[in-house]
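Lecture 7, part B: from sequences to assemblies.

Below are the input chains for today's worked example.
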Amino acid sequence: MTSFALHGIGVSTGIAIGRAQLVSHATLEVAHYQIPPGGADAEILRLEVAINEVRRELEELYGEMTGGDAPAEFGALLDVHTMILDDPTLTEAPKRIIAEQHCNAEWALTQQMSVLVDQFEQIEDAYLRERKADVVQIVERILKRLLGKPGAIAPAGAEQHTILVAHDLSPADVIQFKTHRYAGFLTDVGGVTSHTAIVARSLAVPAVVATHNARQLIRENELLILDGTNHVVIVNPDKSVLSEYRLKQGELELGRAKLRRLVSKPATTIDGIPVELHANIELPDDLHQALDNGATGVGLFRSEFLYLNRQGQPSEDEQFEAYRKVAAGMEGREVTIRTFDLGADKQIEGMDGLARVAPNPALGLRAVRFCLAEPRLFLTQLRAILRASHYGKVRILVPMLASVSEIDQTLALIAQAKETLREQGVPFDSGVAVGGMIEIPAAVLAISAFLAKLDFVSIGTNDLIQYTLAVDRADDAVSHLYDPLHPAVLKLLTMAIGSANRARVPIAVCGEMAGEVTLTRLLLGFGLRNLSMHPAHLLSIKQRVLTTDVAASKPLIERIRRADDPAKVVALLERLNA
Ligand code: PEP
Ligand code: MG
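Predicted structure of the full complex, as structure tokens:
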């Protein structure tokens, strides 16, 4: 077996060594051959056996999901898959094709799948139209059985040494991996701060995206070394390379073990400045990882993940339970719940507002814009958050504010939600803080009006960079232009932090820049005292805080502030980190 390397963008650091599991696109791989005369019955039986195996597989998964602490939406997804599997148009029609055309079962199945997918594509209703993806997934499961391979999601426990290889993974796909400990994953496409990458980082598994053709070049079960730190994947490594990487992997683990000693140490700089290190979470259960890594609060709960991988909307009670769990679990520490940031790369299906593909989703009906367009949905969430505020120190964070009128409208809806709860006698924290995300350049340029109305602000650097540089954060074709150190980005950051500090309005950064150890000193130097990041990064950032002297870094910070040349910024930053 020839060894070769593939280069991409490492979006989650560390080294994974494991066997490739291909997340397949069924139609690309299916052979077409004629079965021998008189062989149709045996071929039909082969298909039936595979279908029954998939049915059992789904039942087992269902048992695992409902018995464990998996999100409720898995159950709904499995229900849909079971319904599709039971539908004769998918499972009976291929048998006729086998009998009539004397072709192999795989071919018959994918022929019928194409017919169904075509039919789905004609459907007006966007939700139903998108169900074609579920049909394809079910067909892939059956095909894997036919080809003697296990299902796409390995049973719990078997995946520790498995690296997933896919053309693309959506944030909804990746969030499912929270219940499965894959060693790593790699994709052909994707950008550094796409939500797919963000969730990968939150899983703390190494990941490389934008490899362009990994999915085509790598075969099932091939041995892979995935080096997320150096943006490379080595396929079929020889023995010496393998042992070198095992050594490196061991060293990294040792480093991680050392960092664990810092868990309960306060994050204070050499010159005595206390720094808050908060956690970004996607699902309620992430709070354990946050606490294990010494988070002093939750700075960003991306509540919209409650919406993914499910049918319909999460009810007020279901949301309340999720928020209450985090609020109570953090035991009095701040819990910042971001209101739904749906749209762009976190599309949901079947809702009026999103039942069309927007010409430019990142600039479209996203986040607070979407919520204000769907006040019933927004009010449901606001009531659920307010109810949870009785159980801990909850704060509400509104994403993607561009103009002050959006704050006014949101505050009016919060007042309305409070009124309803008061009438119902439901307890809540009447002084719950309301903050806004600063992630559109307009919000920085006009920040004083925002600061006057908000209790706190949090800079979403992922979007702020995307919108400042006009670089789609999820598009690897332009990822080389996505630059957190661009002088324009740094100017916006210093403006926002300086203005908020002067106005004495608490400010944090909750974008990926907060978890990037090479930027910690820079952000502290700009006057930031609160950083929110994936729990997996908390300890290495704390270590950097502990070794930073903010006062002594002032002259270098001043030079970085004034630098207009990106190369100079990089050189000065290196000195700052030396
Ligand atoms: C951001 O934009 O930086 C942010 C934290 O929000 P998200 O990544 O979820 O868009
Ligand atoms: Mg954002």
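Note for the exam: The mean pLDDT is 88. Keep this in mind when comparing with the next example.
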